[in-house]
Amino acid sequence: GIQVEQSPPDLILQEGANSTLRCNFSDSVNNLQWFHQNPWGQLINLFYIPSGTKQNGRLSATTVATERYSLLYISSSQTTDSGVYFCAVTGFQKLVFGTGTRLLVSP
Amino acid sequence: GAVVSQHPSWVICKSGTSVKIECRSLDFQATTMFWYRQFPKQSLMLMATSNEGSKATYEQGVEKDKFLINHASLTLSTLTVTSAHPEDSSFYICSARASGGARYNEQFFGPGTRLTVL
Fold first, then answer.
1. How far does the CA of residue B85 sit from the closest CA of chain A (Å)?
2. Closest approach of chain A CAs to the CA of B45, in angstroms?
3. How would you classify the pairing of strands A69-74 and A19-25?
4. Distance from the CA of B30 to the CA of which of A14, A68, B55, B102 falls in 20 to 30 A?
5. Do the beta carbons of residue A100 and residue A52 sit within 8 Å?
6. Of B43, B93, B114, which has the smallest distance from its Cβ to A99's Cβ?
7. Cβ within 8 Å, pair A45-B43
8. Of B46, B91, B105, which is closest to A31 when you measure between CB atoms?
9. How far are the Cα atoms of A98, B94, B95, B116 from residue B45, in angstroms, in the given order?
């Protein structure tokens, strides 16, 4: 089945810093989504981005489908950005989750 | 828009009893819903895919007689953990894939149910 790897696994930032999270996948996909899982376990949709670039406030994402990777950019990080970030891709109709990046933003 | 509710949010039960978890898409229709399981500090693991009006498709290693899934309508799916044992304790998360509209094909997740089996 399709493999999804994320890096880095853990990230500690000072408030106000910028960061880039990476997602590599092993096969062609027709859906890629980025999520933020908050401390209570709720998954929040960030981007639906099978290809191209999107921006939403301080967050933006780019997927290069031909090279099988996606990047999530967080600018001017805030403590509320802490949590786990997952990318997930659809292969054969099933959304397969990556390993996640655990982000801690300190004040 | 695109809200998925899940009930209960947490449940504690005795070993041997059954527990039913409900998942509803509140403002969109979902032909396909999914059930995931998440262990502490791990990623989400797909358990099964359910299509409205048909039998669920279970992932390898998931016991279909233990985890009964029903997808009776375009907005409701249920997961019943039968004869629960302590090893079934986990965080269960449902998801619904929008079958139309502006966010077609995007998956949305419920808040999860934390099950503890004593």
1. 23
2. 8
3. antiparallel
4. A68
5. no
6. B43
7. no
8. B105
9. 10, 11, 12, 18
